Amino acid sequence: MSDFTTLEAQAFEAMSVTHPQLAEGLRGLLATARVTARDNTGHGFYTRFEVDRSQPPLGVSPPLEGATFNVRAGEEVLLMDFLLWVDPEGHPNCLEGYQLAAMVGEVPSAGPVDLRKENLTTLVRYGR
Questions:
Q1: How far is CA 49 from CA 54, 91, 119, 123, in A?
Q2: Which among 40, 45, 81, 96 has most CB atoms closer than 10 A?
């Protein structure tokens, strides 16, 4: 998973915890992953990647949910959700991250943060 940012790896790990029946297969596939594109939409991002298709697919329908946590973006803390997209055969191929809300303490604030101003490689999970 060396091609993935810290935040992307944290999202995958959270999904593995939420879906323990998929954890071993997901980790095995992601260990072979190669990032092919990143798209910062301003409200979130898409990370597209390829995995070794000779390994067994996950056997899930898209999207795989299960990762929602606070993320530090500069001086802001955002509540973000993450989805794992899979191809028709069940191999993961895209991680989507998007803002649910900017947080002020434990309370959502008025609006989203423009992530186009942020270097996505610096975003990390904040708190537990």
A1: 15, 10, 19, 19
A2: 45
Specify whether the CB–CB gap between 64 and 21 falls below 8 A: no
Per-residue pLDDT of the chain (128 residues; tens, 9 = 90+): 568 999 999 999 999 999 999 999 999 999 999 999 999 888 899 999 999 999 999 989 889 887 888 888 877 788 889 999 999 999 999 999 998 876 555 555 556 677 777 777 787 878 76
Token pair for residue 114? Answer: 């423009």
Judge contact between 32 and 52, C-beta under 8 A: yes
The DSSP 8-state label assigned to residue 120 in this structure reads G
Q: Which two tokens stand for residue 2?
A: 């060396």
Closest among 11, 6, 15, 33 to 121, alpha carbons compared? 6
Q: Are the CB atoms for 97 and 44 separated by under 8 Å?
A: yes
Kindly state the tokens that stand for 39.
């798209």
